[in-house]
Amino acid sequence: MGIKRIGRHLLHHHWKLKRIFTPDVLARIEQAIKDSERTHAGQLRFVVEGALDGPPLWRNQLPRERALDVFSNLRIWDTAHNNGVLIYLLLADRDVEIIADRGIHAKVGAARWEAICQAMEAEFRQGRFEQGVMQGIAAVSGELAKYYPPHASDINELPDAPVVL
Predict the structure, then answer these.
(1) Contact between residue 113 and residue 130 where contact means Cβ atoms under 8 Å apart
(2) CB 124 within 8 A of CB 132
(3) Is the pTM of this model over 0.85?
(4) In terms of DSSP bridges, do strands 84-90 and 95-100 run parallel, antiparallel, or are they unpaired?
(5) Which residue, among 80, 47, 72, 20, has the nearest Cα to 160 in the 3D structure?
(6) CA geometry: angle 161, 97, 76, nearest 5 deg
(7) What is the DSSP string of 133-162?
(8) Mean pLDDT over residues 126-135, rounded?
(9) Sign of torsion, CA 39 148 139 133?
(10) What is the DSSP code string of 111-129?
(11) 143-153 burial code (b ≥16 CB/10 A, e <16)
């Protein structure tokens, strides 16, 4: 467990998260997800976590492991077509992870998901958090639209509102 990482997470206050992801920004992200889901039959969730604390921090849980926990806890895997996708941002680490259910992951692959993450992280390094999230939503939606085009009978299986942890 690195002392720098622990310090970064302990000193990373929730006020920074709230300053970057204001209610207006979160509303625009939610609208972007709603709009994107009109172009495909997939399900997309965005979760941002300011910093790890408690057991995840002391176990030195990696962002990928934390994203898998969030994916499971939010039941993103529980969609009719196995096409749920989580975009997870751990703000203290400035790390983005995309966790995709087996149906869509088998079609898109890890390399493409990682490329989307890297593009988002590049925006975040420039301080453009909202733009990075919007770019990520658009890229993931493009992949979902390729393999899961919209149908008239589609229902919204998961909430569109971003989750702030």
Answers:
(1) no
(2) yes
(3) yes
(4) antiparallel
(5) 47
(6) 45
(7) HHHHHHHHHHHHHHHS---TT----S--S-
(8) 97
(9) positive
(10) HHHHHHHHHHHHHHHTT-H
(11) bbbebbeeeee
DSSP 5-68: HHHHHHH--HHHHHHHS-HHHHHHHHHHHHHHTTS-S-EEEEEEES---HHHHHTT--HHHHHH
Domains of the chain and CATH, by start = 3-150+160-164 (3.10.310.50)
Token output for 31: 């609208």
Amino acid at position 68, single letter: L
Residue holding tokens 């998901």? 113
Query: Beta strands of the chain (E only): which ranges?
Result: 43-49, 84-90, 95-100, 163-164
139, two tokens: 């890229």
CB-CB contact of 86 with 47 (8 Å): yes
The CA–CA distances, whole Å, from 120 to 28, 34, 114 equal 17, 20, 10
Return d(Cα 111, Cα 75) in angstroms, integer.
24
Q: In this predicted model, what pLDDT tens digit does every residue of 23-60 receive, in sequence order?
A: 999 999 999 999 999 999 999 999 999 888 777 766 76
The length of the chain is 165
Question: How far is CA 95 from its chain centroid?
Answer: 10
- Stated as kind and residue range, the H or E segment containing 14 is helix 14-20
